[in-house]
Write the structure tokens for this entry.
Amino acid sequence: MSGIWLHAKLLQPFVKEEFRLSLSEGNTPLEENRNLAEALNLKTIYLKREDFNPTGSHKDRGLAFQISAHLQQGKTEFVISSSGNSGISAINLLKGRSEKLHIFLSSKITNEKFLRLKKIIPHLERKNSEFENYNFHFSLKPLSEAFQFAKNKNLIFLRGSTDKYGYEGFKTIGYEINDKDFDSIFIPTSSGTTAKGIYEGLNIKKPFNIIQTAKVNTLVSEFDKDYKTSKHSIAESIVDKVGHRKREIVEIIKKTNGKGWVISDEEIHQAQQILEKESIETSNESALTIAAIKKAKRKGLKIKKPLCIFTGRK
């Protein structure tokens, strides 16, 4: 067994071996960085490098389980809306297979993520097109159009916040950090699905610090009032304004005596400058964790040994 399936017996429902898809995701490095800790006035800091997953994102874990569980149920056609990372994961998981995947992407997808897609589909352009078992849709409203498309055609919508298998694969992050000596955990999130999975996978519940942006903060705004709303964020993967998991995330924060944090672009830039000094390259979403630690310490929280989830590559 490889990937998340090393924990197959702990995941529900149990997925038979013949249905398991994997990119050898998971078992990502957990780095202890004392130089970074010193820069942040901490005793130590742990970085869970989900940006080292095969496609560069934690999404590999969630989608490996999601799609496999649906395959076991006899499903063969899927719809996904993506800012980039989840689409890239799903495309790679279904590469060379017969199942059909409809991918709804923003017309404003970043050049970096579009170029990563072109590495998989060399002839892809920014227009609706079909290649083998992939059907690409570009839209200014990819989420709502994907939802309606899946509903009209009665297809499986691979949205983590609403799919019954959405968070199960992310439990494996919790399994991998259960024996580590950290005092709090910092998680950047869009829908809250990753945070929910990590929470379910942890044996001992440490304070959960859930982080969003000044543009999208549906899950955490009641915990952090010290920010100015913005129409823009450089953490472009934090996009879910609906907040289907808001009740669950608020409950997790309160149960663990954690906090919710809203971070501005300026604070992200400052965090990236700190990371660059330590030769750490990662996404702006990952940098949210460093910015939130700085903000938490300014607010007087006694943090000494935090663990940061770095969700994606730069």
Observations:
- The mean pLDDT is 96.
